[in-house]
Specification:
- By secondary structure, this protein is mainly α.
- It contains five helices and two strands; from the N terminus they run αββαααα.
- 76% of the residues lie in helices and 5% in strands.
- A two-stranded antiparallel sheet has the order 1-2.
- The longest helix has 24 residues.
Length: 126
Amino acid sequence: MRWTWLIFWGVAGVTMLVSSFVVNWFDIDFTYFKLNLGWFALVYTGLLAVRNVLVKQQIEMTPRELHDWGETLARVTPQILELAEEGSRPKVIAAKLKAADGIPELVSLKYMVALSKQLKKEAAAK
């Protein structure tokens, strides 16, 4: 996912805070108090972590979606794989599935993510 930016800003924030013991390069003077930029970087890191966790939770298919659309998605899986091999973007594939089979775009996108994870897992097992 996007953990690389989280790691980058976390390390940058800690580095700025630690370096403030030696030099005050990253201090901002707000007239009444000084604040190190490292704190902003660490807060941003925390926000990125929360966002990553929420995205991971929301991208997984729910049991209700599997119940409602499972058979239809299983039927159109070859079509999804064919379009993906042709280089179509997931949003375009989801729009085509919605027009052809009435599958909501969000469900199609979640299914494509799950399908991608499964294919990577199978490829790694070989």
